[in-house]
Amino acid sequence: MKEGPDIAQIGALIGDPARANILTALMGGKALTATELAAAGGVTVQTASTHLAKLEAGNLLVQRKQGRHRYFTLADDSVGKFLESIMGFAAGRGHLRHKPGPKEPALRKARICYDHLAGDYGVRMLDSLIARGAIDAFGDGLAVTESGESELKRIGIDVPALKSSRRPLCRSCLDWSERRAHLAGSLGKALLSNFLDKGWARRTAQSRSVVFSPEGERQFLALFPTSR
Amino acid sequence: MKEGPDIAQIGALIGDPARANILTALMGGKALTATELAAAGGVTVQTASTHLAKLEAGNLLVQRKQGRHRYFTLADDSVGKFLESIMGFAAGRGHLRHKPGPKEPALRKARICYDHLAGDYGVRMLDSLIARGAIDAFGDGLAVTESGESELKRIGIDVPALKSSRRPLCRSCLDWSERRAHLAGSLGKALLSNFLDKGWARRTAQSRSVVFSPEGERQFLALFPTSR
DNA sequence: ACGATGCTTCGGTTAGGATCGAAGTATGAA
DNA sequence: TTCATACTTCGATCCTAACCGAAGCATCGT
Fold this sequence. Notes:
The structure is a homodimer of 228-residue chains. With 228 residues, chain A is of the alpha+beta class. The first copy, chain A, folds into 2 domains: 7-75, Arc Repressor Mutant, subunit A, CATH 1.10.10; 100-223, no CATH class. Helix content of chain A is 50%, strand content 18%. The first copy, chain A, is built from 11 helices and 11 strands. Chain A has helices at 7-15, 17-26, 34-41, 45-57, 77-92, 104-109, 120-131, 146-155, 159-163, 185-198, 214-223, and strands at 32-33, 61-66, 69-74, 111-113, 116-118, 135-138, 141-144, 171-174, 181-184, 201-203, 210-212. A 3-stranded antiparallel beta sheet of chain A has the order 1-3-2. In chain A, strands 4-5 form a two-stranded antiparallel ribbon. In chain A, strand 8 and strand 9 form a beta hairpin. The radius of gyration of chain A is 18 Å and the shape is globular. At the A-B interface, helix 1, helix 2, helix 5, strand 6 and strand 7 of A face helix 1, helix 2, helix 5, strand 6 and strand 7 of B. The structure holds a DNA duplex (30 and 30 nucleotides).
């Protein structure tokens, strides 16, 4: 009858629309204040405050006080991974929004998934890396090949340094819009940072979408050609 | 503001205790009737009926009419995979039941995770297969080696036949009680079926736990020794 | 045809929780 | 010190949805 962990608690936390919107907003990876999250959730600050307290009690969020602001972030990347998996599941089952907003196309093209690149461009990047043999796809898992390591070095990614971190180097992450895998893990994070540092793309203030500059887009597409 | 798929709908479905218990019961992999699920959820049949209708509308369940019975199962193995991931997350965050029931130890030792073996024994089996080189662990992914293929053949598993199915041969599945990976995928399913067919173990009627016979346990432990 | 079983639908009750206005606390700026 | 901003807590309202009793279908056995 009552077996295993209590999934109802977590489900209930995600089940409220305001909280779901708050969590979705935090998937952008940026720390946001309570007021910003209230706007994201479509509720007043009082209401948002209680929601944030509940999410924090449920260990989904952590807060960092800074002056009179309180910045909230997802508790760790396992939460982000977890939420993205729900989104993938939801998208695959037709649990889509009634009204796809104007920002939808931009989101499908390129967006941030916790700390790495997702959307069409994210999928394209991983496909391209696999096609050229820089990354080996082994069942569910991914691994950088030797040739891939030197290739990434040319782009400006120090793979051995990334390996030393406790976090997995490569992980595949199911993309809710494309329904295919994109690259997560410390390498995925490093690649996105790389693009942002080079000025190829920038994060938008309000949304999770990533906007490429014309030149950046050209470079990106040249670097990661489609095999077909 | 409103970006991406609607995770709130799914969260709400899982968020009700009765529904969560129903889903947990169905993780056993067996098709269950509405009446049985009512008992699992701790509610009357009327209430369970409305819950089941909602879960079906949310594409989490499918029903199969058979005479005057209606058998419910999880919609497909992606639902099982998804739910197990929530359980893993919940277990890791201390969202455990207040009262660990008397069946808990049995569940931790060996239980069914949708269609394959989980718990201590499930983890032990995968560890042992990896340690002897029958399965290669490659980042997140798993793959059967050539020597593993012939070894499994001796046990009675036809790996090439399993490969022909669309379903992945090996997948790692995070175990909520052990917090480590066990073997899922068509191979995981085949191994469990194999043990059941041989009479080494049997599924229990009410619970997800798997009970080994004394002789079956001896055989299993001999076949999958711990490396330490 | 008849009753028994399995399940669903209807109606009405109840409880939990989401919500916001208003007041209270903390931090920073002037 | 005084005011403004950021956030939380309190109190009260309101609404959804979970729940069960009772009645209604559907299917099986005899």
